[in-house]
User: Fold this.
Amino acid sequence: MPLKGLYTILILTLLPKRPSPLPTPIQRLKKWLADLLAVVKENYNYLCQNLLVALPKLRISPMDGTYLARIDFGAYIKAENMHDLFENKCRIAPSFGEWFGGENYATFVRLNLATSLENIRTATHNIIKYVHP
Assistant:
């Protein structure tokens, strides 16, 4: 290596490190994750507050480490009517319970909360409109 290259490396290693004015990739990732978690939490709170007022017998699982709301509609809907109600009437494409828990979960759905609040409002409105107490 030429002397000039060694000199440059030596100078750069001895200079005090200055904080970069631009965010590092890790800082950007942390901000993105914090923003996403805030959206998911806001959507979960909106969904729970509005659905439980209109349909108080629903069972909504706590949001522990996931972006999915798991809801049991067994108090309002028969298992055989779940697909038709959600897909054709509510116009929602959830994960249906039998996909993730078998027949014992046939009245459950999982809804993705990592979306816009507007999508959650629309889904909540449609569920309340078509699921009758």
